[in-house]
From TrEMBL:
Keyword Transport carried by entry: no
UniProt subcellular location: Cell membrane
Originating organism: Streptococcus thermophilus (strain ATCC BAA-250 / LMG 18311)
Source species, domain of life: Bacteria
Topology versus the membrane: Multi-pass membrane protein
Gene Ontology MF, one: zinc ion transmembrane transporter activity
Keywords for the protein's UniProt record, in alphabetical order: Cell membrane, Membrane, Transmembrane, Transmembrane helix, Zinc
Source organism phylogeny: Bacteria, Bacillati, Bacillota, Bacilli, Lactobacillales
GO cellular component: plasma membrane
Protein name: Uncharacterized protein
Transmembrane segments: 12-31, 88-107
Residues in coiled coil: none
Length: 180
């Protein structure tokens, strides 16, 4: 909110973060309701989202979609951080924080990829296919990072909105059991 109050929001400095938080919750709830996915502890009969009529998705495919949904806000958070730095707010501390965030999220993707690769390998698939699917669960992060970076580079007003959106999306994922 300090960032928003410095950029002309005045008494409404809370609004961009609150709007982003609400928008993030609505957006991820919509994605959660539509995209078929499965939480780790559930059986395939408890899959959520709209299921295809002709062919049921495998447990691995549903888990892949759940982890991919979870990766949306992570990529956006990295992009917002670097986009804000590129927009003229470059400081050494900010740059080190952005690099630390990117490295931390990248390292955290390793166990998420393993959570997909191990069941795939257990289903008698090749190591290459297991590695490929585990890696592809994070493919949305560079896209969302680019989107967040461009949004904040073009207009500083998106900073609080995007970070509010990231926090709500990640909070939603954690509460729904994707992180746990």
């Amino acid at each position: 909110m300090a960032y928003a109050s410095q950029n002309g929001y005045g008494k409404l400095s809370w609004f961009p973060a609150a709007a982003g938080f609400l928008l993030g919750g609505v957006a991820l709830r919509l994605i959660d309701a539509v995209v078929p996915h499965l939480h780790l502890e559930n059986d395939i009969s408890k899959a959520e989202g709209i299921q295809p009529r002709k062919k049921k998705l495998s447990k691995t495919a549903l888990l892949f979609l759940a982890i991919t949904i979870h990766n949306f806000p992570e990529g956006l958070a990295v992009g917002v951080t670097f986009g804000t730095l590129a927009g003229g707010n470059m400081t050494l501390a900010g740059l080190m924080g952005a690099i630390g965030l990117a490295i931390g999220i990248g390292l955290q993707n390793v166990p998420e990829g393993a959570a997909l690769s191990i069941p795939i390998r257990a289903d008698a698939k090749s190591r290459i296919k297991a590695f490929y699917v585990g890696s592809m669960s994070a493919i949305v992060e560079p896209y969302r990072s680019y989107h967040g970076s461009c949004s904040c580079y073009v207009d500083d007003g998106y900073y609080s909105l995007c970070l509010g959106l990231c926090s709500r999306c990640h909070d939603f994922c954690g509460n729904r059991g994707i992180d746990s």
